[in-house]
Amino acid sequence: MLKNRHLNIIGRRRFLKQAALGTTAFWTVRGAFAEALTLTPRQTEGPLYPDHLPLDTDNDLLRINDSITPAVGEVSHVRGKILDSKGDPIRNAIVELWQVDSQGVYIHSQTAKSSKRDKNFQGFGRFITGSSGEYYFRTVKPPAYGGRAQHIHFAVIRGKHRVLTTQLYVKGDPKIKRDGPINEIKDPNLRNMLIKEFKPLEGSKTGELTVGFDLVVGVTPEDPKEDPLRFQNPKYKKG
């Protein structure tokens, strides 16, 4: 059941949750929204959403379980809020993040056996939003691969339904100009909602980065083929 699949969303490192909670002043608060917010543009899930979820699905993708060896890459802190169109924070939303490791490899079974894969990179994580709608992940800055620009996949689940699938792109990446999914969005203002700057983390002595990415979601579930329960149906085949 969905409930059982989400039991270990936060995981072992509660200091990461505290890191997110301690930065709530970073975002705009309710009351500053004079008009309805624009919903975050939807993007394709892509073919490499994990077909077998890792045992560790917390919000720190740099360490798997209690391993002392971290993943390789530019450490990046990804944080934001899940909001509705009125600007109100959404509590108890499940935020999923998945991406390639520093070598451009996903944890999907089609690529998991790649000799280049970083075995210390979790590749997928989840976070349940608190009362102010905040989420937080520690991961690596994704590289470009193939014909794709640098990007991180996101999904937002409310109750039993996925209400948003989208992608975060790295500002300044020259491949954005030729990337198919981002350029399917013709309105430049909507397109820019998904392109964010990875900035140096203040006080970091190791070159860590930080990026803010608020997500504005509606109440209408996505197509059933994008529902997180799809893998429980053995008759379902992904197109």
Please provide a written account of the structure.
It is built from four helices and ten strands. By secondary structure, it is mainly β. The protein has a single domain, classed as Protocatechuate 3,4-Dioxygenase, subunit A. The strands form two sheets. Strands 1, 4, 8, 9 and 10 form a five-stranded mixed sheet that branches. A hairpin with a 2-residue loop joins strand 5 and strand 6. The two termini are 23 Å apart. 35% of the residues are buried.
Which keywords apply here?
239 residues, mainly beta, Protocatechuate 3,4-Dioxygenase, subunit A, five-stranded mixed beta sheet, 9% helix, globular
What can be said about this structure in brief?
The chain is mostly beta strands and 239 residues long. Helix content is 9%, strand content 23%. The chain has one domain: Aromatic compound dioxygenase (Protocatechuate 3,4-Dioxygenase, subunit A).
CATH class descriptor name: Mainly Beta
Number of helices: 4
Give the ordered list of helices and strands: HHEEEEEEHHEEEE
CATH superfamily grouping: Aromatic compound dioxygenase
Low-confidence stretches: 1-15, 20-34, 226-239
Give the SSE map:
Elements: H1 2-5, H2 14-21, E1 75-83, E2 94-98, E3 124-128, E4 134-140, E5 151-158, E6 161-170, H3 180-183, H4 188-192, E7 195-196, E8 199-200, E9 209-212, E10 215-216
Parallel strand pairs: 1-9, 1-10, 6-7
Antiparallel strand pairs: 1-4, 2-3, 2-5, 5-6, 8-9
